[in-house]
């Protein structure tokens, strides 16, 4: 028998949150000075009824990280970032328009094993936490069907510019150099360091 599984695309807040925060207030970032707790899994850090990405299935799955790079060299279009173009490098982050993005793919291989009694689908959620911002963000996801007792190897392809860049306060997309902690769901951890060549 085949079953489906699903993951929540939002955070379910407790009653106290709903009573305190107006439904029309869509500010994302928390503001402690006025007691505003923020919204979404990226900014709200309080208790939840169900967190973003929580799921339900009629079967159970294990995930295992098989392979992923530990260091990525990020080639830029300018030879001297600091001297020639001060707007390129900021707080150890490089503007994506100054990076050779087309050649910057990253592949991860993850084994998903169905350890339950029913066939089912599992959604792999990949999060990144750059060391500079320490802000967790979903960068990609992949859904896989696995029959009961079987294992499926999933290749997840990501582009550094598309999946790992963050918009700064001016809306400019940048990639932070240094360590990025990768979370595959809640149970797998891996670190990748981006460095200028």
TrEMBL record:
It comes from the Eukaryota. Keywords: Hydrolase. Residues 122-188 form the Fibronectin type III-like domain. Pfam families: Fn3-like. Signal peptide: none annotated. This is Beta-D-xylosidase. The gene is BXL1_2.
